[in-house]
């Protein structure tokens, strides 16, 4: 493992500093695996100093901080740094399933802790007291009686183009030209998909 | 939908009244669309007030008929009317959030993103649903809803990615096409409609739209449409000036959700496997949008101050 001295601050690094000041938003501190050999960097961005060179299949712990595509991770030896999120994959082969490698709790409880926790600062009391909460699901939709009055109400919230542009100016959001993204080859059909969804 | 044979349709005429009286028995019917249809029919005949405000009741008949005939006959006002009816179903399942500052913020964000879309002049309407679950929905004509539980777990760029994904569904008319294939899947719309006499007929047809909508939001869209909305939603959010990695970041978090977690179960069951969505996005994005990503993170709570 080689450790380089820090370089000058790039825009990425400034962004990361700003990020570090505000509380993180991400929920999970999940185990993840490096999909391909890559560099762990001291700060977000390809110009940042390299903390370590990681071979494929290295297991890391994902930390809550993110800056664009760069996510913070911790190595088994305690060192931490930043990786491109596309270099990170799930630890288990099972897609969309968390791999509880370091929790002794049940899968559901662990999931609740992950999802409701707000990073390292979150208290476990908050997480456990929320377990058992159910979100809008198929049964709610099946039971739904149409509520046209609510549609009329939500339509009353519509904003004009001018109001949206005013918001964007205040928020310092500027439109930029971005080409449509090319369609990659379709993945192999998923065996767990809903049978009513056509597989092509 | 080929599994909807004539046999269960024929049964409708015989047992329709019985089924309508015992709707929940058929919740797991493999002929789900038909089951949903019957549930909708039963519910509506009892409640009898389905059409959205200002609708004269005959219109739903025309909408469903047109939908099953050709997409070309669905012009923009009709698309919006279908969207209103589906929005009424969604808002019939859970109420709107009473946080008016949040509602306004989501409309600001969504309307700004919609201006970068190919359909900037639709009457875009955004709403926050008061629900702890993690989900977002769209309906034809520019209706987009997100749950409060989603808002609570994302930053602004991530919310922008979700809204852009939903806006792309509307742009590309994914829900209309899904409704059309469901409506065309059988003759049942016409058959069942013909069994209802007199003034109840208009309501019954409207109940069919209700049933189709419930089936649609309970089962989800074509997987190809989801991949397309992920991909073009990323481009759309970037076009509106947001970090393009908002949507991939949300999907990375969704990936860690256990499928049996009841806050996420509907979002997970109605979309392709999350890892597949991420793999597709990685292939489409490569690193080509990374230069647009170095933006400071904005918390939603800070926007509401």
Strand order of the largest sheet of chain A: 6-5-4-1-7
- Could you list the spans of chain B in which at least 5 consecutive residues all have pLDDT below 50? 1-58, 190-202
Say how many strands of chain A there are. 7
Question: Count of DSSP helices of chain B?
Answer: 15
- What is the 3D shape of chain B? globular
Explained architecture:
The complex is a heterodimer of chains A (200) and B (305). In chain A, 36% of the residues are buried. Chain A has 200 residues and is α+β, with helices and mostly antiparallel strands. Chain A is extended. Chain A has helices at residues 11-21, 107-116, 124-129, 138-143, 148-155, 161-170; strands at 31-34, 38-41, 50-54, 59-67, 70-74, 80-84, 88-90. In chain A, the strands form two sheets. A five-stranded antiparallel β-sheet of chain A has the order 6-5-4-1-7. In chain A, strands 2-3 form a two-stranded antiparallel sheet. Residues 1-9, 17-26, 93-130 and 192-200 of chain A have low confidence and may be disordered. Chain A is built from six helices and seven strands. Chain B has a three-stranded mixed β-sheet with strand order 1-3-2, with helices on both faces. In chain B, strand 2 and strand 3 (143-147) form a beta hairpin. The longest helix of chain B is centred in the C-terminal third of the chain and has 20 residues, at 200-219. Chain B has 305 residues and is mainly alpha-helical. The interface between A and B is large, with 95 and 122 residues.
